[in-house]
Amino acid sequence: MSQGDVRNIRRDHARFREIVKGRIKRELAKYLSRGDLVGKRGKDKVAIPVPQIQLPRFVHSTKNQQGVGQGDGEKGDPVQGKPGRGQQAGKLPSEHVLEVDFTIDELADILGEALELPRIQPKGQEKILARKTRYTGIYRVGPQSLRHFRRTYKNALKRIISSGVYDPDNPVIVPVREDFRYRSWREKPIPVANAVIIYMMDVSGSMGDEQKELVRIEAFWLDTWIRRHYRQIEVRYITHDAEAREVDEHTFFHTKESGGTLISSAYRLCTQVMQDYPATEWNIYAFHFSDGDNWSKDDNEECVEILEKGILPQVNQFGYGQVHSPYGSGQFIKTLQELTGDWENLVLSEIQDKTSIPDSIKAFLGGGR
Questions:
Q1: What end-to-end distance do the CA atoms of the chain give, in Å?
Q2: Do residue 212 and residue 231 come from a single domain?
């Protein structure tokens, strides 16, 4: 296979991926609500099922052809061997599903373009520094590992030509010590922003599997977008009923619901987790999902106090997503609505069903914080 063939294949492959990306962006609402994407996530890639996109293939022309295969033939002639009985063909087309792998970054870019999300502006970015090596010039001395071959060769060639000993028929160029040139470098401090995401979810008796599935899908897309903007991400998970506990990811999404609800227990634990991530060095994102059914008015007031004194002053954003449940009162979001005028980093969203997920994601990520 020639280099030209390879270039053509790469060009066609890139064009096909652009077609697939366009298809996904046009139908993003459908993909945002698909729970199976979470299960198809690998370490760095996600398999996206794209129906009704055909791969390029050869189609043989029927012009000036007769019979079966080649040569003469009549309708009904068997192709090979004895004729047999087959099943009647169906008349409806099948749907072909093609799975295309996208990196997490590519998926985040598709999400951002489709929902017109602004880029996140990290908070406290100047406080975290990394070292970046940058080549700044050419010097006469240095280690052999930094020798600049092109500059060395040009100096040797100029020296030989100027001395009159250059032979075009035998162009042997041997550098001497004075010809050598070396790259110089220095380390430059650059800002690097890290982030932590703290997820909290109500697992009381009124939060069933349907509600937890909504949370699981939304958390996947929130993760995808936030990870696109930070070098390092840590994720912590808190579940709560009348008591809060920190758990791993699998337990977070698969805990069986039971018991009553005391939301303040989750907020108190959240403030303890945040102590591991100073706001001067970390960008903190906290998301709480519940059906809005809390134990009492007194606990609502305690939640407000914890938010205003311990959480909201420290976080880039606090997002509260209230998922619809036939058993929940849905009152807690009304308590938080009274705070939104004072805290722009407090964002609220109501998630009725899977069709509400795109609007909820845009509400949470549309501030660029």
A1: 50
A2: yes
